[in-house]
Design brief:
The protein is mainly α. The chain folds into two domains: 3-183 and 297-327, HUPs (Rossmann fold); 202-292, Tyrosyl-Transfer RNA Synthetase (Orthogonal Bundle), CATH 1.10.240. The chain is 55% helix and 7% strand. It has helices at residues 16-29, 41-44, 51-68, 85-96, 99-103, 106-112, 121-135, 149-165, 212-221, 240-253, 257-264, 269-295, 298-327; strands spanning 3-8, 34-39, 76-79, 141-143, 175-177. The strands form two sheets. A three-stranded parallel beta sheet has the order 1-2-3. α4 packs across α7, α4 runs parallel beside α13 and α10 crosses α12. The protein is globular and about 70 Å long. The model has no long low-confidence stretch (mean pLDDT 95). The chain binds adenosine monophosphate and tryptophan. Residues 8-9, 17-18, 21-22, 144-145, 147-148, 183-185, 194-197 line the site of adenosine monophosphate.
C-alpha cells in the first residue's frame, strides 16, 4: 500500500476552495492508502501569526478536517510541530537544495511581494521543509492543488541530489496527485482570483464554518453578469464569475458543467443562485456544525492530535535517524 502525505496551513478557516480542491479528495483517498494529514504550523509562521490565533486555527483546521471525513483513527492527523523529525530533516535539506533552485520558486515571489528583503528566511526555505515533510515518511503520493506542483518537483530534485551525493537510493520519487476538474474555485468577488482563506474580504469566499444565512448572503452578493446562464458550457469561457458558480454547482452535485446547464441554462442568476445556495447549505452547514461540536471539547481534540503525533513520530524518527547517519552525524 502506498503512503500518502499532505499538509494544509492553519492560516485561517478552511474554505470551499480547500474542500473541493483538497480535503474532499483526501477523504476519498483514505479507502485504499495509508494516509498522513498534517496541519503545517511550521509553514504557517513563515509569515507572521498571532500566537493565540495560531493555536485556535490549528484546532479549527483539525476539527474541520475530521468533520469533512478525515479519519484520525484509521489514518494519522497531527500538527507538524509535534514531530521534530520534520525540522531535523529540513535542516539537512537546507544544505542539499541550491539557492538557484529556490530562486525559481514562484510562490516565494508571490508571497514575498515587492519588498523581498523584508520576507522571513523561513519563507525562502519553505519548499525544503515541505520536501522534508514528505520524505520523513518515505511517502510516495502527495495530493495537492496545481499551485504546489513546483514544490513537489523541487522535493524530487532534493531527494535525487541527496541520493546522488551520499551514494544511496534512500529517498523515493514522489508522485503529485493533482485531483479533480473542479481543482480551482475562484473568488466570489473576482472570477480571475483564487478563493483563498487569506483574502482580506470575507465576502470573497465560503468558509466551512459559515452558517446558512451567511452562505445565502454571500451567494446573493456574488459577482455575476446581467446575461442569463447559457446552454453551452463553451459560452462560459468569457464569463469567469458565471463559470465559477456553475463549476461549484457541478462539483458539489457530482455533475459536469454541461449537465448543470442542461437544467439551469436560460435561467437568470436569481433562480440559479437559490439552487446553488440550497446545495451549498446542505453540504457545508453540517461540516461547520460538526466542527463546532468537536471544538467544544478541546481536551478530547488535543488527545486525538497527540495520538496522531505519536504514531507519526514512530514512522518518521527511524527514517530521519538513518538520514542523519548517512550524512555522517555521530549518533551517540
Ligand atoms: P492553502 O489554502 O493554500 O493552504 O491550500 C491547501 C490546499 O487547498 C492545497 O492543496 C491547495 O491547492 C488547495 N486549495 C486552496 N485554495 C483553493 C481553491 N481556491 N481552489 C482549489 N483548491 C484550493
Ligand atoms: N505548501 C502546501 C500549501 O500551501 C502545504 C504543505 C506543507 C504540504 N507541507 C506539505 C502539502 C507536504 C503537501 C505535502 O498548500
Amino acid at each position: 500500500m502506498q503512503r500518502i502525505f499532505s499538509g494544509i496551513q492553519p492560516s485561517g478557516v478552511p474554505t470551499l476552495g480547500n474542500y473541493l480542491g483538497a480535503i474532499r479528495n483526501w477523504v476519498a483517498l483514505q479507502t485504499d492508502h495509508e494516509c498522513l494529514w498534517c496541519v503545517v504550523d511550521l509553514h504557517a509562521i513563515t509569515v507572521w501569526q498571532d500566537p493565540a490565533q495560531l493555536r485556535r486555527q490549528t484546532r479549527e483546521m483539525a476539527a474541520t478536517l475530521i468533520a469533512c471525513g478525515i479519519d484520525p483513527a484509521r489514518h494519522i492527523l497531527f500538527p507538524q510541530s509535534a514531530v521534530p523529525a520534520h525540522a531535523r530533516l529540513a535542516w539537512i535539506f537546507n544544505c542539499v537544495a541550491r539557492l538557484g533552485w529556490l530562486n525559481r520558486m514562484t510562490q516565494f515571489k508571490d508571497k514575498a511581494g515587492k519588498d523581498r528583503e523584508a520576507a522571513s528566511a523561513g519563507l525562502y526555505v519553505y519548499p525544503n521543509l515541505m520536501a522534508a515533510d514528505i520524505h520523513a515518511y518515505h511517502a510516495t503520493r502527495v495530493p495537492v492543488g496545481d499551485d504546489q506542483k513546483q514544490h513537489l518537483e523541487l522535493a524530487n530534485d532534493i531527494a535525487q541530489k541527496f541520493n546522488h551525493d551520499y551514494e544511496v537510493s534512500y529517498f523515493p520519487v514522489i508522485e503529485p496527485l493533482i485531483l479533480g476538474p473542479a481543482a480551482r474555485v475562484m473568488s466570489l468577488r473576482d472570477g480571475s482570483r483564487k478563493m483563498s482563506k487569506s483574502d482580506p474580504s470575507d465576502q470573497s469566499r465560503i468558509n466551512l464554518n459559515d452558517d446558512a444565512d451567511t452562505i445565502a448572503l454571500k451567494i446573493r452578493r456574488a459577482k455575476t453578469d446581467p446575461e442569463p446562464l447559457p446552454d453551452d458550457p463553451a459560452a462560459l469561457d468569457a464569463r469567469p464569475e458565471a463559470r465559477n458558480l456553475v463549476g461549484i454547482y457541478a462539483a458539489l452535485s457530482g455533475q459536469t458543467a454541461a449537465q448543470v446547464l442542461a437544467i439551469h441554462g436560460g435561467q437568470g442568476f436569481g433562480a440559479f443562485k437559490q439552487a446553488l445556495t440550497d446545495l451549498l447549505v446542505g453540504c457545508i452547514e453540517p461540516i461547520g456544525q460538526q466542527a463546532q461540536r468537536l471544538l467544544t471539547d478541546t481536551a478530547a481534540l488535543d488527545a486525538i492530535l497527540r495520538d496522531g503525533a505519536a504514531r507519526a513520530r514512530a514512522i518518521a524518527e527511524p527514517i530521519v535517524d538513518e538520514a542523519e547517519r548517512l550524512v555522517g552525524f555521530l549518533k551517540v
